[in-house]
Design brief:
- The chain is α/β, with parallel strands linked by helices and 310 residues long.
- The protein is built from eleven helices and ten strands.
- The strands form two sheets. An eight-stranded parallel beta sheet has the order 8-5-4-3-2-1-10-9.
Length: 310
């Protein structure tokens, strides 16, 4: 059904009247050169409370934060779903504010490392609609969760199979499928951060075995649970298509309390990484808006891709 809707939208042209959307010279320079994106989860409180709408995300990223690339979160779409008309509105908003859609972070669509074959296949199929949405929006990738329940060997084997299948589908659409070290929903409904994918050794081994050109990693600074985060980033950097620069709290100097940004960016700077780094504030103590600005400032301070003022 999604394919027929997308076909319909490709036939029916929608005229967008661009009013007052001319880029300033500084914006023209920043947009293509600076690969900083904004993870929508940074604003999940505002969206879930109704203070902000998913469709307004591109405008907020550009006008309030000077960020011209966005990472959507599937669960922040209305009812965790969409139709072609909704996607067109989102695409129009991006075009109006000169924002690049880079990724959809997909949650609650089943465990790709499920050791029950039927459940694993259902999880793979559940992700297809988000690949189609990402293709329509002009994204570069979808982010998936690489978890399951069972022995490491069994979960790993199931996850490798799922990633190869999704990688084949993504290749047809010119997309990447990237795994984030992430928590998992337990059978009782609770959330457990200490999941299969939160271990850098396990996840990097899966990626090495999958060995698919359209499959990669999205290391998140804050989601390694009991595994050393610096080792985890080091494990995943060779496979990284993107990075989530997670923050929770800041000290009086504006540095992240939980993560040594200089230490972690020394590794990023020494690697061959050339993707987007996403601003993802998930803490408290400051507002979402202030947390986003402070996280962006840390990326600009330590990432050598960003030109520094003389």
């Amino acid at each position: 059904m999604m394919k027929s809707l997308l076909l319909y939208m490709s036939i029916v042209s929608i005229i967008w009247i661009n009013t007052g959307c001319t880029l300033t010279k500084s914006e023209e320079k920043q947009q293509p050169d600076v690969k900083i994106s904004l993870a929508e989860w940074s604003l999940h409180r505002a969206i879930k409370s109704g203070k902000m709408d998913n469709l307004d995300f591109p405008r907020v990223a550009a006008q309030e934060f000077g960020i011209y690339a966005v990472e959507y979160v599937s669960q922040l779409f209305p009812d965790n779903n969409y139709d072609a008309a909704y996607l067109q509105q989102l695409k129009d908003s991006c075009e109006r504010y000169h924002v690049k859609s880079t990724m959809i972070m997909v949650d609650h669509e089943g465990n790709l490392g499920d050791t029950t074959e039927v459940a694993r296949q259902i999880a793979v199929q559940n992700h297809v609609k988000w690949l189609e949405a990402a293709e329509f929006l002009g994204c570069l990738s979808i982010r998936v969760n690489g978890n399951g329940f069972g022995t490491d060997e069994d979960v790993s084997a199931a996850l490798v199979k799922s990633m190869r299948e999704l990688g084949d589908l993504a290749k047809e659409k010119g997309l990447m499928v990237i795994i984030e070290n992430h928590g998992v929903s337990m059978p009782d409904g609770s959330w457990n951060m200490n999941s299969f994918s939160s271990n850098g050794t396990r996840l990097s081994q899966v990626l090495a075995i999958a060995n698919h050109p359209n499959v990669g990693a999205l290391p998140d600074f804050g989601n390694f649970a009991d595994y050393d985060k610096y080792q985890g980033v080091k494990d995943l950097l060779p496979y990284s298509f993107g990075i989530s620069a997670k923050t929770f709290r800041f000290d009086e100097n504006g540095e992240a309390v939980e993560t040594d940004y200089k230490r972690i960016f020394d590794m990023v700077n020494a690697s061959n990484f050339d993707g987007y780094i996403g601003v993802e504030f998930e803490g408290d103590g400051v507002s979402e808006h202030e947390g986003i600005k402070m996280t962006k400032a840390l990326i600009e301070k330590y990432w050598d891709r960003i030109p520094k003022e003389q």
